Inverse folding.
C-alpha cells in the first residue's frame, strides 16, 4: 500500500465502506489487523494505555465506536456525554490508532465478520465468553486477547468526581 496513513485525527475517521476497502488493501499487503471496540465516552489514561497495548499486537489498529443511539440503548438515557463525531476525532488523535469507524448496532458482530481481524482485543474486565466476535475471529485463525484492565480509571469515576467537586488525583 503506497498511500500514506492519515495524520490528522478527522482523516482517520472512516465510514464502514471506506474502512472495508482500506482493510482489504492492507490485508493484501500482509498487514496484521487489530480490532477493538467500545463507547470511549470520556477519554482517560486507561483508554489511552489500553489502545497503546492493543496497537502493539499488530500493524494496524481499528477502533469501532458505538454510535450515540447504540450507547443510549446499552448504557441508558443521558449517555453518551460526548457526541460520536467528537469521540471519533478524539480517538483518532491518538498515535496508536490507525482508523476509527462508528457502528449503530448494539454489538460489533457484523463489523467483525466483515473485517475479520487478525486480533480482536477487549479490556480485561470482559471474560473470554463475553467477547463479541470471539468465535468468528478464532474460527478464521485469529487471536482474541483480553488486555490488562487499568484500575483506577473509568468514565463513571470521572463523572462522580465532577459531580462531587472533588479534585482529580495525579495519574499513576
Amino acid at each position: 500500500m503506497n498511500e500514506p496513513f492519515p495524520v490528522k485525527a478527522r482523516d482517520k475517521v472512516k465510514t464502514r465502506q471506506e474502512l472495508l476497502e482500506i482493510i482489504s488493501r492492507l490485508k493484501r499487503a500482509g498487514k496484521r489487523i487489530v480490532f477493538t471496540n467500545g463507547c470511549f465516552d470520556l477519554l482517560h489514561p486507561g483508554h489511552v494505555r489500553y489502545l497503546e497495548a492493543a496497537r502493539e499486537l499488530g500493524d494496524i489498529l481499528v477502533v469501532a465506536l458505538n454510535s450515540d443511539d447504540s450507547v443510549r440503548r446499552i448504557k441508558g438515557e443521558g449517555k453518551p456525554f460526548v457526541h460520536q463525531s467528537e469521540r471519533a476525532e478524539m480517538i483518532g488523535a491518538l498515535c496508536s490508532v490507525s482508523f476509527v469507524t462508528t457502528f449503530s448496532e448494539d454489538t460489533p458482530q457484523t463489523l467483525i465478520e466483515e473485517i475479520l481481524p487478525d486480533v480482536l482485543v477487549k479490556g480485561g474486565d470482559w471474560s473470554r465468553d463475553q467477547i463479541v466476535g470471539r468465535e468468528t475471529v478464532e474460527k478464521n485463525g485469529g487471536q482474541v486477547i483480553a488486555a490488562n484492565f487499568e484500575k483506577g480509571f473509568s468514565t463513571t469515576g470521572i463523572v462522580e468526581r465532577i459531580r462531587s467537586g472533588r479534585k482529580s488525583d495525579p495519574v499513576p
Notes: The first helix runs from residue 9 to 12. Residues 9-164 form a domain with the Rossmann fold fold (CATH 3.40.50.620). The longest strand covers residues 60-66. The helical segments are 9-12, 16-28, 45-55, 68-75, 84-92, 109-115, 134-139, 155-164.
